[in-house]
Structure formats: C-alpha cells, structure tokens
C-alpha cells in the first residue's frame, strides 16, 4: 500500500508548487495587506446591506482572521482545494486508465480496491501538504506585515478545509466508478461543489429553504478561523468522504476497464 | 492441466459483440499465438483473462484459478505486457520497475537491470520523453523481470526495431525453456510462425481455428510451379487427388497440392523437367485463407 501511495504522491509532486504556492501566496498577500486596509474595510462593511453580508457570510472585518475567512477561506480555498482533490483522485484512477498505468498496476498482485484506497490516502496527504504550505505562507505574511494572525486560528481555518477537500476526492472516486474519462470526473464533481455552494447560499438567503443546506457540505463548513473547528462537523464530513470513497471503490471493482 | 483455459468465454459491450464462445487451452511451456486483425477480439480476450473486463458468460481460468475471483493470486505468478504500454509521462523506467518490484515483493532489481542492458532500455529518462519502441522495452522488462509462470503479451514487438524484435523472440524462447507458458497476441504473422507452437485464429469475435503451426501449414496446399521441356499430360495432373487451380502458360504449369505430394512428383517425372518450385505457404497465406473463407 505504501508503495502505491508513494508512487501516486511522486506523480502529483508538482501540485505542491502549482497549487500550494499560489493559494499560500495569495493568503499571505491578504494577511499582509490587512493592517493597511483595516480601517477602510471596517467602514465599508458597515455600509453593506445586511442581506448581502448574510448571503456571503461577511461578518465584521475587524480582525485579520475575519478578513482571511472572508477573502480566502469562505470560498476560494475550499473550492480550489475541492477541485484539486478531485483532480488528485481522477489522476490516480481515470488518468491512470487513460495513460495505461492502471493496466500495468493491475498486472501486479494488487486488488483494485487497494489501488483506490492508496489513491484516496495519497489525496488526503496531498491536501494536507498543500494546506500546510498555505498556512505557513499565510503566517509568514503575517510575520512580515505585523498583522498578528493567530497561529491556532489560522491552523484551524486551513485544517477545516481538509475534510471538505476529502469529500470532493471521495465524490471523484464515485464518479470514476461510473466513467473513466478524467474530464467527466473533474467536471461533474466541480459542478457538484459549486452546486453545493449555491444551495448553501440560497438556504442562507431564504430561511424557508434552509433545509436545502443540509445537502451541502458548506452547511457544515462553518468559520473555523474565527470560531475554531467544530469537531462533529469535521468528523462527520471526513466520515462521509471515506464512505463515498468506499462506495466508489465498490463501483470501481465491478466496472470494466476498457483499453 | 492447462495453465490458461477458457470455456465459451463471451463478452458483449452492451449490444455490441466483443468475443463469443472462445474456448482455448494453453499448456505449460507452450507458446500460443493469438492471431487476428484489429477489432477481431484479441485484446478483449486478453483483458477478460486478466480480469480487466468481466465476461458476459463463460469462464476463464489461469493455473486452475478463476480469473475474476482469484485474480490477485493469479497476477502474482503472471507477467503482462498491455497492447498500448504506458505508465505516465513523468515516471522514469527505474521508478516503474521499483514500484512493480515492491508490489511483487521483490527486493533486488538485478534481473530487471540485466534486461534493461540487454534491450538497451533507458530507465533514467521520463517515459514521456521516450519513443514508443523505447517505452515498449520498459513494458517488456516489467512483464518478465519477476520470472512469471505465464506471460501474456499483447502485440509485444510493436514499435521495436528489427534487432530488438530478434532479441525479444530469443527472450520468449528462453522463457519457454524455463517452463513459462506464453500467450502472444499479434498480427505480425512472420514472428508468430517463428516462435509459436500453436495458434488460434480469431475472426469477428469467434475462434475459427486452433492448430499447431506445423499442422496448419501442412494442411494448407503447397504451391507447385513446373517448367516442362516437352508437352505434358495436364489432364493427368489435373485428375490427381489434392491438385487444384491448375493453370498453364509461358511454358510453365502452376497448381496447388493438398495432402500427399508423392503422386504429383511421379506424374511430373514422366516428362522432361526444366525447372520445378514447390513452395510451402506462409502463415500469412494460411491466415488470409481463413479470412477469405469467412468473407465468402
């Protein structure tokens, strides 16, 4: 298993640069400029209509943590990390089928379920590494600008994205059990993620539709950078991600692997 | 007991025919050639054997084990070169070999490195930078480095230069000497004729012949061309058992002979003979005969 995980991570090593650095650099920039825009922001936010603030989860921006959440952790980072996660699992399964690697791996005494498990584990490690790089760069931005970003708050904020990304990875495995075309896998899961975000948004805007939010992972995502991680939500989403991956593994086990 | 055995193996893709009723048995130490043009069902048969496709009906067994239920146990004793070998553009040959060795529980890469040297395979460059032939060499190494008991090779020499093709055929012979059974799909009939003990011919998803290569060639009529030094009794020749397609022109008589050639030689010898050519058919001609029969 460890050999498969290591091989998958080696294949995906460039993502640390291509995803971790931009997300981290952007987060660092957001944190770094906060001291210089703090006063203007507070004033601007107070003038926003309350419906707009409610819809986009814009609260007070009187701390750097609140600003980091509003600018990065409320939408951009979860969607980017979710997309990265589905790219990771798709690359390990449908991408491997397209490149011929899957045929070679399945020449060895390895079950399909083991390949799927390794792929999911590699995705989890990749996401953790990218979020860690982002966290480090954001803290570096704070250090250089004197923004006073709390380590524990930032850690909670970035760590809270991990189960959400993992859920997208699990969804990717489910779709791979149905289609082995990478574009279909990534496109459909990205669509589901955006759909979930819209569902959550609609539910927040119209209280009569609040029930819809239960079908969205963003309902359970919260504002960990400000309020800390909700352990139940964190665990629940992680378990859901693992369950999706397990269901996807069963579908993958049963499907034909066409050349 | 055969090491590879299929019984009425059938695979449909929805309503489309893949293969139908394929029954084959390959013995230990045998090199079995699987012939057919593109789309005939060679790769579908192989992928079903390897549990990459699930059969619609029928069964496939390797080492007496069910190819689906026991696929992991089977693959620990089997080597496979897929038809269109690839492993990802960024991966180096050495990384691929190391990974497969770890998955197979092999600690040393000695045989893989020796094979790389023999086939002049570059294990240090990313596969995306290698030509098709050079990638194919790495595929061959991955298929054989662990000394499998059964080798499944789908179009193994495609992309290899003639020297490497020769080296590959020598390797296949060595594997057979070791006791390994080889299931080789190809449309390179010359190589099949040189290396295989038996062949199966597949047409439109159905197996139309399974024969020893020598028997197949023996059964197919020889082509005889004779230049007589005097008028010959062509009616006598035409009337001989097994003679067909007799044509005469420009002082030469040509015809086909199936079965015993002795009466033909004796009939020819009654006249003065200037020149005689007797040609055995190539496997390609045999193969085309089967296909024309089907088309007719």
Structure overview:
The complex is a heterodimer of chains A (259) and B (296). Chain A is built from 13 helices and no strands. With 259 residues, chain A is mostly helical. Chain A is globular, with a radius of gyration of 19 Å. The mean pLDDT of chain A is 89. The two termini of chain B are 37 Å apart. Chain B folds into two domains: 4-217, 3-Layer(aba) Sandwich (Rossmann fold), CATH 3.40.50; 221-280, Alpha-Beta Plaits (2-Layer Sandwich), CATH 3.30.70. The chains are: A mainly alpha (259), B alpha/beta (296). Chains A and B meet through helix 1, helix 6 and helix 7 of A and helix 2, strand 6, helix 3 and helix 5 of B.
Gist?
Chain A has 259 residues and is mainly α. Chain A has helices spanning 2-11, 14-47, 50-55, 64-73, 76-92, 94-99, 101-105, 112-145, 151-159, 161-176, 182-205, 224-227, 231-254.
Features:
heterodimer, A: 259 residues, 13 helices, 0% strand, globular, B: 296 residues, alpha/beta, Alpha-Beta Plaits, 2 domains, four-stranded antiparallel sheet
